[in-house]
Amino acid sequence: MTTPMVRWIARALWLAPALLFALAVYQAWVAYALHRTWTEGIPAVAAITALEISQRMDVTYDYVNLRVHLPDGRLLEREKLSLPHTLAPLLRGRDSVQVRVRPESPEDLVIVDLARAQWRMAAIQAIMSLLGGAVFAFGVGWWNRLLRRQGDPALRAPES
Question: In this predicted structure, what is the pLDDT of residue 101?
Answer without folding.
Answer: 95
